[in-house]
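Deliverable D4.2, example record:
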Amino acid sequence: MPAERAPLSDGVFRVCVVCTGNICRSPMAEVVLNDLVHRGGLDDRIAVSSAGTGDWHVGEKADPRTVESLERRGYTGDVHRARQFDPDWFTDLDLVVVLDRSHERVVRDWAQNDADRSKIRLLSSFDPEAAGLPDVPDPYYSTAAMFDEVLATIERACVALFAQLEPALRHTPAKHQTGA
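Output generated by the structure prediction step:
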């Protein structure tokens, strides 16, 4: 078991959004949440990344339908590169947001302790309109219209997530690192 590392102390709240291959849903959520962070003026307070539970798309761009769906809503998703979640990241993360219950099971299995497990939340749990629908559907084997529907679901949940994070992070003094 690796040695325990102290959490980062730079005052940045770190979020990683996790789906299956990191080419559809989690890149959408990463882009949307980063946009909310930027528009909220909290770029120095919240860092958002994404990853997948599987490794088969590592290094690839987001699915073209993901990029197209994001562009139709005014976002840019063309710089994304897929990566696989690494359990060692738990130490540096404050929140791990999963897109469905299968991701939740996998990431919980990777968690090494209760502190890690306490960081894992379903994206839909932030959305009061999700009403018993815990999973954000995977659009991979579907149509462009489904990508747009999934993006709308992700946008709604990300707005609700940001609404919970923003007040606490806006009113907590930032810690700035010094040195080279």
